[in-house]
Amino acid sequence: ATSKPSCAEMGEPGDMKIKYIGFCGADDSVDPRLLASISQRYEWVEWGILFRNDKEGQPRFASSSWVADLNKVNKNRKIKLAAHLCAQYVGDLLDGNTTFLKSLAEQGFTRFQLNATKANNFDTSSLGVETAQLLRQTAAAHPDLEFIVQRNVETQPLWEHLLSAPVPNISFLFDESKGLGTVSASYPPPPPEGIQFGYTGGLKPSNIEAQIQKMAVAGKGREIWLDMESSLRTKLEDGTDIFDVYKAMACIRSVISLGYKPESSY
């Protein structure tokens, strides 16, 4: 059998670089020690934890006790963590309230995604110049943290104002699926140089290689991260909805197979 060519062998699209691959929705169904084991071998893996006050402890939304256990497991801070803020938590942050932000930062979270969409129980009518300015102020006060804004039609009143005066630690996630797992037929071009960005939209083990090649064409040699959530779920025979690390590993293997990341060795 002939081996599959790497992206580097396929020409220009291979110039794109992948900084992180993000797996969102880790919850009480997976032991944080499994996440730590994967992170030890693949330091470019990031685990996204969803925070939504009205769904804590439900599938996809970790309980506070699970997050506390994760903090203990991650005492050496080797696990890359992103907090995906929904509902009240994203509302508070956009109002300039950083109490929860600081609490999570103390627990090892370094990136904070603002899921300011209707699907995440957020009233987008509040987005505008004022929220953009408050977010700029929060980002400036926490230069060691990164703030990720979902870039889609719903969040345009926020991100269009942020684009007018970019801040180094505010980045954009192109997400027209709005977290609903809709597969992207294509990806938009990058934002201006100096603004970090990522792509998402229906990524899963069965399509990640084809989708990454589309990202490579759109990304124009820039460094990106990619993120996924819905496809990482598995329902057991008893109906239990779990975060499936085997599916995460399949995606890791695909990124390595395409030549974007090397296999690690101990």
Major sheet: 8 strands, parallel, barrel
Count of extended strands: 10
Distance between the termini: 29 Å
Helix content: 25-40%
Structural class: alpha/beta
| Order of the strands making up the biggest sheet | 1-2-3-4-5-6-7-8
Strand content: 15-25%
Helical stretch count? Answer: 8
- The radius of gyration computed from the alpha-carbon positions, rounded to a whole number of angstroms, is 18 Å
Order of H and E elements: EHEHEHHEHEHEEHEEEH
Q: Name the average pLDDT.
A: 92
Oligomer: single chain
What ranges have pLDDT less than 50 throughout 5 or more consecutive residues?
Answer: 5-13
Describe the secondary structure blueprint for this structure.
Elements: E1 17-24, H1 32-41, E2 45-51, H2 64-73, E3 80-85, H3 87-94, H4 99-106, E4 109-114, H5 129-141, E5 146-151, H6 156-164, E6 170-174, E7 197-200, H7 208-219, E8 223-228, E9 233-235, E10 241-243, H8 245-257
Parallel strand pairs: 1-2, 1-8, 2-3, 3-4, 4-5, 5-6, 6-7, 7-8
Antiparallel strand pairs: 9-10
